[in-house]
Design goal:
The protein is an alpha+beta fold. The protein has two domains: about 15-195, Alpha-Beta Plaits (2-Layer Sandwich), CATH 3.30.70.1290; about 220-290, no CATH class. The chain is about 45% helix and about 15% strand. It has helices at about 30-45, 70-90, 110-120, 125, 140-145, 155-160, 170-180, 190-195, 225-230, 235-245, 250-265, 270-275, 280-290, and strands at about 15-20, 50-55, 60-65, 105, 205-210, 215-220. It has a four-stranded antiparallel sheet with strand order 2-3-1-4. A two-stranded antiparallel sheet has the order 5-6. Helix 9 (about 225-230) packs across helix 11 (about 250-265). The longest helix has 19 residues, at about 70-90. The N and C termini lie far apart (about 55 Å).
Length: about 300
């Protein structure tokens, strides 16, 4: 059976996962991890891509990569081939270094992207390698917290999600980023986590397949944002006030329920905010503060 074609287009964002062959510990020491980071940075200029987040563990790595000119399969083939040559030569071995081809999952909304960055940066914590994610040397978390523009990670895209004009107020953007990263919650759904581990075996729960003339089409089966908001409010007046962006304090609990339900339906922060006339950053900030009982 032929391989399924990957979705590839300029500007696409991918979550790439690559594991050692037979789950081997191929990044056994600092030299191995640094070599992979060196290769990723080296080919950025040649292949024109951005690295939004990364973590290098002992037997696998995650990167979130935004392609600009070259397709993802060429980028990953170059990086993995060059690392394999280095690894085999260093260890006087031959054969496959990595397990099968990489897993590349297209990331298409801001909520999932931010949750994915947090999931990736928390890998060392889950493995009990460190007590704070910023203490781990081989991830991009510390680049964000220190606004290290000379590092491997390209931090502008993510920080601009937290604050539109973050370059004029970088401290606030970094604070919002840090608060989000440090939340002790896992807001990826079971389906999304399964998609990370088994991307070819999980269908999106938000799509329904229909057969028409023996051809498959997919329809969106989510409730609309209007339906969600109508579900949480008590009156038409509350609906209209929230819809136009009213800041009356008694509406806050209704907004919170609306945001929670909309996130569960996989709407992006931008879509959720547009419907109630607020920015995506305001949605994220409200959701964070309410989750932490700050309001």
């Amino acid at each position: 059976m032929g391989r399924k074609h990957r979705i590839e287009y300029s500007g696409a964002i991918y979550h790439v996962i690559q594991r050692g062959n037979n789950k081997s510990y191929i990044f056994q020491d600092e030299e191995d991890k640094l070599q992979l980071l060196y290769l990723i940075e080296k080919y950025k200029q040649e292949m024109m891509y951005e690295i939004l987040a990364f973590v290098i563990m002992d037997n696998h790595y995650h990167i979130i990569i935004k392609t600009l000119e070259q397709p993802i399969h060429k980028i990953m083939r170059l990086i993995n081939t060059q690392f394999s040559k280095y690894y085999n030569k260093k260890n006087n071995r031959c054969g496959h270094t990595f397990q099968n081809r990489y897993k590349g999952i297209v990331v298409e909304d801001d909520r999932y992207l931010l949750s994915l960055v947090r999931y990736i940066h928390k890998n060392p914590l889950k493995a009990k390698i460190c007590k704070k994610m910023q203490d781990y040397k081989y991830s991009s978390d510390n680049l964000y917290r220190t606004k290290n523009i000379n590092g491997l990670g390209d931090i502008d895209f993510i920080l601009s999600i937290f604050l539109d004009d973050y370059k004029n107020n970088p401290k606030k953007a970094i604070k919002l980023y840090s608060l989000f990263m440090d939340e002790e919650i896992e807001d990826l759904t079971k389906e999304e986590i399964s998609l990370i581990e088994f991307p070819d075996k999980v269908d999106s729960k938000f799509k329904k397949e229909l057969k028409i003339n023996n051809k498959s089409i997919y329809i969106d089966i989510r409730r609309s944002l209007e339906q969600i908001l109508m579900e949480v409010v008590d009156t038409k007046e509350q609906f209209d006030l929230i819809k136009i962006g009213s800041r009356k304090r008694y509406l806050t609990p209704y907004k919170f329920q609306y945001i929670k339900l909309a996130i569960k339906e996989n709407y992006s922060f931008n879509d959720i905010g547009k419907f109630i006339s607020v920015s995506d950053v305001a949605v994220l900030d409200l959701y964070r503060r309410l989750n932490n009982n700050e309001i």
